[in-house]
Amino acid sequence: SSSYVQAIERLGTTSAPVIAAVNGPVRAGGIGVMAACDLVVVNPSITFAFTEVRIGVAPAIITSPVMQRCGWSKLAGPYLTGEVFDAARALDMGLVTHIADNVEAKVAELCAGILLGGPNAVAATKLLLRHSHTMAELQALSESMFTSDEGREGMAAFAEKRSPKWAQ
Question: Distance between CA atoms of 73 and 134, rounded to whole angstroms?
Fold first, then answer.
């Protein structure tokens, strides 16, 4: 289970955005892996369940990534009963970010959108989404991004109505 914990942590801490593409039912620990990803694309037919209580255990490890995505009141029913719920409810809970008939096409679209951003800006934005920061920290980040090579290139490209050339 320590490798499972490490996998969950790695998905959240890697600087690159991670997308879960879900085409089959998701239960228990699988929800933890899915929730640790930044974007979650599911087929509308997908079902979910936190089945842990039904086998006499608690959803302990997965609670960290799940609670980062969802408020506890929307989790209470599924967590306490183990009930099956659908993709629309998962979207409402914040557990998934996108529902798509063609999961692969949606993932490709999201990847293309991410690749339009500066690599450092995307990495910094992932951190912003996952951690709380003081206003002083946010101001310092903003100033460092605006004065960075990537920030200068992005603003110049915008002003010149061209695509930016990101350093890889």
Answer: 27
The rounded distance, in Å, linking the Cα atoms of 129 and 28 is 24
Q: Going along 23-151, which residue ranges are E strands? A: 26-27, 39-42, 47-49, 85-86, 98-99
What are the tens digits of pLDDT across the range 131-166? 888 999 999 999 999 999 999 999 999 999 999 999
H-assigned helices in the chain: 2-13, 29-36, 63-69, 72-81, 87-93, 103-115, 119-130, 135-147, 149-159
Q: What is the CA radius of gyration of the chain?
A: 18
> How far, in Å, CA of 35 to CA of 11, rounded?
9
Give the span between the Cα atoms of 75 and 79, in whole angstroms.
6
User: Residue 131: what residue type?
Assistant: H
Q: Which amino acid is at 69?
A: R
